[in-house]
Amino acid sequence: MILTYRIRHNRNFSIELRKARQVAEFAIKHRALTTKDVRHIGLKSLISNQVLRKYGGNRNAKKVSKVKLTLPSKGIRFSHEDRTITIPSLKLELEYQFRNDFENINQIELDSEFAYISVTVPECALIQPKGYLGVDRNTTGHIAVVANPQNGKVLKLGKKAYHTHKKYKNMRKNLQKNGKNRKIKETKNRENRIVKDINHNVSKKIVHEAKKNEMGIKLEYLHGIRNAKTGRNFRYSLNSWSFYQLEQMIEYKARLLGVPVVYVDPYHTSKECSICGQIGNRSGKSFKCHCGHVDHADANASFNIALRPEFVEGIDQLRVDRDARKGNTDIHREAPPGTTETLEPPKL
Fold first, then answer.
1. How far apart are CA 160 and CA 149, in angstroms?
2. What's the predicted TM-score (pTM) here?
3. HSE toward the beta carbon, residue 277, CA cutoff 13 A
4. For 209-238, what is each residue's pLDDT tens digit?
5. Last residue of a domain, one of 64, 94, 120
6. Which domain holds residue 17?
7. How many domains does the chain contain in total?
8. Residues of 251-282 as b/e, b for ≥16 C-beta within 10 angstroms?
9. In a domain, 236, yes or no
10. Is 260 found in the same domain as 186?
11. Burial class (CB in 10 A: 0-12, 13-18, 19+), 100
């Protein structure tokens, strides 16, 4: 598996970055593919070659945005014993603190502040799961509710994400009224960073819970969910929902630990009773069934997800996509006022 780590390099590469931009602009204009054509710019040929391959070989590239200094593996030296990475062509040595069992460094990209180090790390063999944790992802309340059907345990994670979206939405509304467009972009970037950090911690907690219990993870197959017809008040929550980012984080963390991840059909996961299987009554975050079962709606959904058979793409997908187009999905509605808050496990 390939992972990328970020390290602050504490060097001034403004001259090299400016030359890299000139190489990229020359490549787009002339479609040059050899370092001889850009030798006059004065950038190291090892780096020039990477820039030319990216911009000169891409016919769709029309302009240059952000250019980084890219070093291939042959221009990189590293020592596991000293925990150092050396780039001879730039006379740069970096000390790293990330995991030391990587097999190889694929490439390093440098911008004005950070070095982005791409490494290949070994994956664990997939475990034979004793069962599956069901993970219900939400736009309101907790972003993930995890159920273990073997012991009945429920984890509610990431409640801060919903309040973060709400807070920054109101901030941007006020900034828009005052015409402060630059501030709007800054607040959006800040919001994305906060939510990404929340997703990292939530995904880490889910995967470690599965590994500890020797279980796999089941998620809803949410392809096409943004095409679902929803009310105006709910549309912002759906469009700002980072469910795919959380999904990707769960997947790669699970692969590193050998935890299998499978998908299930999301049809009626939050409407069916996890005890009797009949359609119950859901109101906000409350669920009641005619059989007498009463539960938190997201907890009930997560048990349903854990107990459902694995999704078979190409067969079950037909109904999922059809329901998304019709708006007949189990998108969670906003919790009504007065809903009781649930304490989250400590943040990792």
1. 26
2. 0.73
3. 2
4. 999 999 999 999 887 655 555 555 544 445
5. 120
6. 2-120
7. 2
8. bebbbbeebbbebbbbbebbbbbbeeeeebeb
9. yes
10. yes
11. exposed
